[in-house]
Amino acid sequence: MKTTIWTIIILIFLLTLYGCIEKEGYYGEVGNEVISNLTNKEWNRKYHSVWADGTEVDLDVTYIFKDNGSGSYKEIATFKSGKVEEVTSYFHWSFTTPNFKYIYLDFECFWEIEKLTSNKLSIYETWNDPLTNPGQTYRDFQEYQYSSKQ
User: Fold this and answer.
1) Which tens digit of pLDDT belongs to each residue from 50-62?
2) How far, in Å, CA of 58 to CA of 84, rounded?
3) Model pTM above 0.85
4) Which of 118, 142, 148 is nearest to 61 (CA)?
Protein backbone atom coordinates (compact mmCIF):
# COMPACT_ATOMS: atom_id res chain seq x y z
CA MET A 1 0.00 0.00 0.00
CA LYS A 2 2.80 2.43 0.91
CA THR A 3 4.58 1.58 -2.34
CA THR A 4 1.45 2.41 -4.36
CA ILE A 5 1.01 5.75 -2.59
CA TRP A 6 4.67 6.67 -3.13
CA THR A 7 4.41 5.66 -6.79
CA ILE A 8 1.35 7.89 -7.24
CA ILE A 9 3.05 10.80 -5.47
CA ILE A 10 6.16 10.44 -7.65
CA LEU A 11 4.05 10.27 -10.82
CA ILE A 12 2.10 13.39 -9.83
CA PHE A 13 5.37 15.18 -9.06
CA LEU A 14 6.90 14.18 -12.42
CA LEU A 15 3.77 15.24 -14.34
CA THR A 16 3.75 18.58 -12.54
CA LEU A 17 7.46 19.05 -13.25
CA TYR A 18 6.95 18.15 -16.93
CA GLY A 19 4.19 20.77 -17.18
CA CYS A 20 6.62 23.42 -15.95
CA ILE A 21 9.21 22.75 -18.64
CA GLU A 22 9.29 25.51 -21.24
CA LYS A 23 8.45 23.91 -24.58
CA GLU A 24 8.58 27.12 -26.64
CA GLY A 25 11.64 29.35 -26.78
CA TYR A 26 14.05 26.56 -25.86
CA TYR A 27 16.79 28.18 -27.93
CA GLY A 28 16.28 31.68 -26.57
CA GLU A 29 15.44 34.78 -28.55
CA VAL A 30 18.60 34.76 -30.71
CA GLY A 31 18.42 31.04 -31.42
CA ASN A 32 14.75 31.16 -32.32
CA GLU A 33 15.41 34.06 -34.71
CA VAL A 34 18.26 32.19 -36.42
CA ILE A 35 16.17 29.02 -36.73
CA SER A 36 13.17 30.96 -38.02
CA ASN A 37 15.26 32.79 -40.62
CA LEU A 38 17.10 29.64 -41.75
CA THR A 39 14.50 26.89 -41.86
CA ASN A 40 11.56 25.85 -43.99
CA LYS A 41 12.47 27.96 -47.00
CA GLU A 42 14.52 27.60 -50.16
CA TRP A 43 17.97 29.21 -50.24
CA ASN A 44 19.13 29.70 -53.83
CA ARG A 45 22.45 30.56 -55.44
CA LYS A 46 23.18 30.86 -59.17
CA TYR A 47 26.73 31.16 -60.45
CA HIS A 48 29.13 30.30 -63.26
CA SER A 49 31.95 27.86 -62.61
CA VAL A 50 34.92 26.44 -64.47
CA TRP A 51 35.86 22.96 -63.30
CA ALA A 52 39.43 21.67 -62.97
CA ASP A 53 39.20 20.01 -66.41
CA GLY A 54 38.18 23.34 -68.03
CA THR A 55 34.47 22.51 -68.31
CA GLU A 56 32.31 25.61 -68.01
CA VAL A 57 28.96 25.27 -66.28
CA ASP A 58 26.18 27.46 -64.92
CA LEU A 59 24.97 26.18 -61.56
CA ASP A 60 21.64 26.73 -59.86
CA VAL A 61 21.95 25.47 -56.27
CA THR A 62 19.13 25.28 -53.73
CA TYR A 63 19.33 24.27 -50.06
CA ILE A 64 16.33 23.64 -47.82
CA PHE A 65 16.89 23.35 -44.07
CA LYS A 66 13.92 21.80 -42.26
CA ASP A 67 13.33 22.67 -38.61
CA ASN A 68 13.58 18.96 -37.70
CA GLY A 69 17.29 18.82 -38.60
CA SER A 70 16.91 17.35 -42.08
CA GLY A 71 17.46 19.09 -45.39
CA SER A 72 17.89 18.79 -49.11
CA TYR A 73 20.35 20.04 -51.70
CA LYS A 74 19.43 20.41 -55.35
CA GLU A 75 21.89 21.34 -58.08
CA ILE A 76 20.99 22.03 -61.69
CA ALA A 77 24.06 22.19 -63.93
CA THR A 78 23.70 23.71 -67.39
CA PHE A 79 26.70 23.09 -69.61
CA LYS A 80 27.88 25.23 -72.54
CA SER A 81 26.66 22.50 -74.90
CA GLY A 82 23.12 22.95 -73.55
CA LYS A 83 23.15 19.66 -71.64
CA VAL A 84 21.40 19.90 -68.26
CA GLU A 85 22.09 17.64 -65.26
CA GLU A 86 20.09 17.70 -62.05
CA VAL A 87 21.17 16.16 -58.74
CA THR A 88 19.25 16.09 -55.46
CA SER A 89 20.83 14.99 -52.18
CA TYR A 90 19.48 14.79 -48.65
CA PHE A 91 21.32 15.56 -45.44
CA HIS A 92 21.00 16.14 -41.71
CA TRP A 93 22.25 19.32 -40.13
CA SER A 94 22.88 20.73 -36.67
CA PHE A 95 24.39 23.75 -34.99
CA THR A 96 27.79 23.03 -33.49
CA THR A 97 27.97 25.97 -31.08
CA PRO A 98 25.50 27.56 -28.67
CA ASN A 99 25.66 30.89 -30.54
CA PHE A 100 24.05 29.34 -33.68
CA LYS A 101 26.89 30.56 -35.92
CA TYR A 102 28.26 27.22 -37.13
CA ILE A 103 26.34 24.45 -38.90
CA TYR A 104 27.50 20.90 -39.60
CA LEU A 105 25.96 19.23 -42.66
CA ASP A 106 26.42 15.47 -42.59
CA PHE A 107 27.79 15.30 -46.11
CA GLU A 108 31.02 16.40 -44.51
CA CYS A 109 31.00 20.16 -44.62
CA PHE A 110 30.63 23.02 -42.19
CA TRP A 111 29.03 26.40 -42.68
CA GLU A 112 30.04 29.48 -40.74
CA ILE A 113 27.14 31.92 -40.91
CA GLU A 114 28.45 35.36 -41.85
CA LYS A 115 25.02 36.99 -42.26
CA LEU A 116 21.48 35.66 -41.95
CA THR A 117 18.28 37.62 -42.45
CA SER A 118 14.85 36.48 -43.53
CA ASN A 119 15.88 36.76 -47.20
CA LYS A 120 19.70 36.58 -47.30
CA LEU A 121 22.18 33.94 -46.16
CA SER A 122 25.95 34.48 -46.42
CA ILE A 123 28.27 31.70 -45.30
CA TYR A 124 31.82 30.43 -45.42
CA GLU A 125 31.91 26.74 -46.33
CA THR A 126 34.76 24.55 -45.08
CA TRP A 127 35.40 20.81 -45.16
CA ASN A 128 36.65 20.63 -41.57
CA ASP A 129 35.34 22.18 -38.37
CA PRO A 130 36.39 25.85 -38.55
CA LEU A 131 36.75 26.04 -34.78
CA THR A 132 39.25 23.20 -34.49
CA ASN A 133 40.90 23.84 -37.90
CA PRO A 134 40.92 27.62 -38.36
CA GLY A 135 43.64 27.80 -41.05
CA GLN A 136 42.00 25.65 -43.72
CA THR A 137 42.93 26.08 -47.36
CA TYR A 138 39.32 25.54 -48.49
CA ARG A 139 37.15 28.36 -47.18
CA ASP A 140 34.55 29.33 -49.77
CA PHE A 141 32.33 32.40 -49.35
CA GLN A 142 28.79 31.84 -50.67
CA GLU A 143 25.68 34.01 -50.76
CA TYR A 144 22.16 32.65 -51.01
CA GLN A 145 18.87 34.42 -51.54
CA TYR A 146 15.50 33.35 -50.22
CA SER A 147 13.45 31.83 -52.99
CA SER A 148 9.68 31.58 -52.67
CA LYS A 149 9.43 28.60 -55.07
CA GLN A 150 8.77 26.11 -52.26
Assistant:
1) 999 999 999 999 9
2) 10
3) no
4) 142
